[in-house]
Design goal:
9-stranded mixed beta sheet; globular; binds N,N,N-trimethyl-histidine; 4-stranded mixed beta sheet; 37% helix; alpha/beta
Length: 338
């Protein structure tokens, strides 16, 4: 097994906050390379992880607050209704590790339930955005004086490798919001198996997974009436313009989202409204688009209950418990390593 040698810069912002940054860049290819590869492919694609620059992260928060985007509300309801049952399954030595912490309203409910039962709590949020991490950590620490935070500004794999080498506490790992849905079936198994490798027998994974449902509900969640999802999708072109000196005309592309029923996923695309050529100076390249040609920017897989059981099994877990909201649109699942 390949263990990344990470360089840790530590700063003590308060006596209950540590922020650790992976100095070495993660093993990802660069934005420029990924844009070049994606736009040279047929059909054209761009990886969804590049949605989340500062503007994109803010737009995503807005999506979560829009009435059509049901996953946030459903997941919050599930956690709200069941957090005490969840917390009771863990002892006072348990620390909570969160992958992709982002907005922490849902997490805060879990943290509160744990502190209520056990008092002092160690929370390890992991995110690639250091500014978001520090800001939300400070906010939490001001509210809860039994809380201790070690924030890891790193990609998931680097952070998990670091954790495995540095701590012995029992862990509850949170992976909320159905972020797993951005991965293809093979990637989902590879990702969860990787997490499994970093877990001990008594550790648990709490994972939010969106369920397959009627086309209308799914498609309006990704085509909200205020057009925030459209702005979120188009922001990717804006980011390429800004960071790679290109001349995408944002008025010549249109947001599109639909359910691909056969593949069990919602797809987002950017559709070219005309024949056009875009120049990306940083790549010394031009890309031609025909009218109606699309760039495939995101897959969001939706699961059946059986698919969740299969995913757990294929990644080295069993499912302890699955909780659902009243409409049964979303699930939160406690995975147990086998
Ligand atoms: C953060 C990946 C779970 O797929 O629903 C929201 C991102 N894209 N609206 C999702 C997203 C469009 C979201 N995930």
């Amino acid at each position: 097994l390949d263990i990344l040698d990470i360089d840790i810069a530590q700063s003590r912002t308060s006596n209950r906050l540590k922020v650790r940054t992976a100095k070495k860049q993660p093993a990802f290819s660069s934005f420029a390379d990924d844009v070049s590869t994606g736009l040279s492919a047929t059909p054209k694609t761009l990886p969804p992880r590049y949605f989340y620059d500062k503007a994109g992260s803010e737009l995503f928060e807005e999506i979560c607050n829009s009435p059509e985007y049901y996953p946030t509300d459903c997941e919050r309801e599930i956690i709200d209704d069941n957090m005490h049952e969840i917390a009771q399954a863990f002892d006072s030595e348990t620390c909570i590790v969160e992958l992709g912490s982002g907005s922490s309203v849902k997490t805060e409910l879990i943290l509160k339930a744990f502190m209520h039962l056990n008092g002092r709590l160690e929370y390890v949020p992991i995110d690639i955005s250091k500014s978001m991490l520090v800001e939300s950590s400070r906010k939490l620490l001001r509210k809860y004086n039994k809380l201790h935070i070690t924030a890891l500004a790193a990609d998931y794999q680097t952070a998990l490798d670091h954790l495995r080498q540095n701590r012995t506490d029992r862990k509850l790992i949170l992976f909320l919001g159905s972020s797993i849905g951005n991965f293809t079936a093979d990637e989902q198994i590879a990702f969860l198996s990787g997490i499994r490798e970093d877990m001990d027998e008594s550790d648990r994974l709490l994972i939010g997974i969106d369920l397959i449902k009627d086309r209308d509900i799914l498609e309006s969640a990704y085509n909200d009436s205020r057009g925030i999802t459209a702005r979120f999708n188009l922001n990717l072109l804006h980011r390429i313009n800004r960071e790679l000196d290109s001349d995408f005309n944002l008025d010549a592309f249109q947001h599109q989202a639909h359910l691909n029923e056969k593949k069990g996923r919602v797809e987002m695309h950017l559709r070219s409204l005309e024949d056009q050529t875009v120049t990306i100076d940083a790549l010394y390249k031009e890309f031609r688009f025909t009218e109606n040609e699309t760039i495939h920017t995101e897959n969001s897989y939706k699961f059946t209950r059986q698919q969740i059981l299969d995913l757990a099994f294929d990644s080295g877990f069993t499912v302890d418990t699955s909780w659902y909201d009243r409409k049964q649109w979303f699930s939160v699942n406690l995975f147990h390593p086998v």
